[in-house]
Amino acid sequence: MRADQKAGCGHDEPALPLSKARDRVCEAAVSVSETESLPIRQALGRVLAEDVRSAIDVPGHANSAMDGYALRAGDLPNEAPRALTLIGAAFAGRPFLGRVNQGQCVRIMTGAPVPDGADTVVMQERVSVDAERVQVNALPAAGANVRQAGEDIKAGQVALEDGVQLRPAHIGLLASIGVAEVTVLRRPRVAFFSTGDELCEVGRPTRPGQIYDSNRYTLFGMLQRLDVEAIDLGVIRDRPEELEAGLARAAEGADLIITSGGVSVGEADYLLEVAERLGKVDFWSVAIKPGRPTVFGKLGDALYLGLPGNPVSVMVTFYQLAKPAIEKLSGLQPREPLLIRALCMATIKNKAGRREFLRGVLSRDETGRYIVSKTGHQGSGILSSMTQANCFIVVPEDSELIEAGSQVDVQPFEALV
Ligand code: AMP
Ligand code: MG
User: Fold this and answer.
1) What is the pLDDT of residues 303-322, one digit of tens each?
2) Are 263 and 284 in contact (CB under 8 A)?
3) What is the pLDDT at residue 7?
4) Residue 267 φ/ψ, nearest 5 degrees
5) Which ligand 1 atom sits closest to the C-alpha of 264?
6) Is 199 in the pocket of ligand 1 (CB under 6 A)?
7) Is residue 215 predicted with pLDDT exceeding 80?
8) Of the residues 280, 299, 329, the one at which a domain ends
9) Ligand 2 (ion): which residues have CB within 5 A?
10) Do 287 and 16 contact (CB within 8 A), yes or no?
11) Is the pTM of this model over 0.90?
């Protein structure tokens, strides 16, 4: 790294706005193209590589939506009651094989095929039964309570399009059309390592001045949730040669390399210069707090994100920059984080020109309004602020003061499916 450039990424220099940084990361990240065939359960979370067409109608036959009696709509007079002759029963999986003729009906359970001749089901609560005589007391509309063949999916139809991410409903739908295996894109390979002479592996006693390496664990967790092939390369010390060797090795097999630490302006921060030597650096300073010194570039065919060392900065920059990159690599369109407007319970000061991500607790008050409060200490090293939070409070670049009682944007950590 040239000294002049490193000075240029000092803390008082203008940094790239987060939206621009995100755009540049997303532009550089292109979908993997290799595919694999997987049983549908294992394909959960993966992206379909080709359209899936249904060979069958779903449902496969007209069937009853109720427990009741199958009859012919034409048999019903304009006024109740009307007595029909009961000629048999139809169960789900055990159809009635005969035909329902004029003046007849069949006992039918939910899911049972509607017998030939019948077209309507009357609920069992609407009839009185006396041996073989079924008296219909309240007339159903013609066709009532019948689920038509193919009303969910028709034979020959594209049931799922390529590019779709398979969620629980999708693998259920694949099962409903009898598809046991699908072709999906391979998972992106993400190599990651921690950097720092002070880092000690969990399970070992620390020596003076050492701290435990927590970033590799939060990174592992975040990667696991995004369903990538995570390649853990351990800890690399603050030695330019070792960092260079580590990055070069990672670049061989990975689609994305993520590191933590060593990207700031300290004397043991070498990753920016090493990345410049090995490849091409696009940006190294983003206008966010925490997480300003974040490096992005390309090393060979691999994308490289050098995240800062502070544990909260790692998580904030991961969700704002690494996650969209991984979505693109996975074959998805990056999803804008869900934003909720909530009433802010605290006054928040921000330095204009950067976006701040505070850790918040989102809830609803007695009147049903969303309210958000800050978790305690907000330092970028306070990882417990992340364990206590359920959302980020997003303070925009153009906002220097958010008064308690005004509205703020909140990014909840959880969404439903
Ligand atoms: P750095 O950017 O390397 O100067 O790191 C910034 C801060 O984050 C320092 O206090 C580091 O000790 C801390 N840090 C760096 N890497 C890790 C890690 N893997 N786990 C926990 N803390 C870390
Ligand atoms: Mg360091």
Assistant:
1) 999 999 999 999 999 999 99
2) yes
3) 42
4) -75, -15
5) 2
6) yes
7) yes
8) 329
9) 196, 261-262, 309
10) yes
11) yes
Q: Does 276 sit in the ligand 1 pocket, CB within 6 Å?
A: no
Crossing angle (nearest 10°) for helices 240-253 and 271-278: 50
Distance, C-alpha 356 to centroid of its chain: 23
Distance from Cα 314 to the centre of ligand 1, integer Å: 9
Ligand nearest to the CA of 239: 2
Is any ligand 1 atom within 6 A of the Cβ of residue 31? Answer: no
Residue 241 Cα to ligand 1 middle (Å)? 19
Same domain, 255 and 316: yes
DSSP assignment string, 326-374: HHHHHT-PPPPPP-EEEEESS-EE--TTSEEEEEEEEEE-TTS-EEEEE
Residue 9, pLDDT above cutoff 90: no
Domain limits at 172? 35-58+151-185
- For residue 344, give the CATH number of its domain: 2.40.340.10
Same domain, 297 and 253: yes
Task: Report residue 13's pLDDT band, with 50, 70 and 90 as the boundaries.
Answer: low
Atom of ligand 1 nearest to the CA of 381: 8
Mutation choice for ligand 1 from 11, 260, 318, 382, CB with most ligand atoms inside 8 A: 260
- Confidence band for 80, pLDDT divided at 50, 70 and 90: low
Instruction: Count up the domains in the chain and report the number.
Output: 4
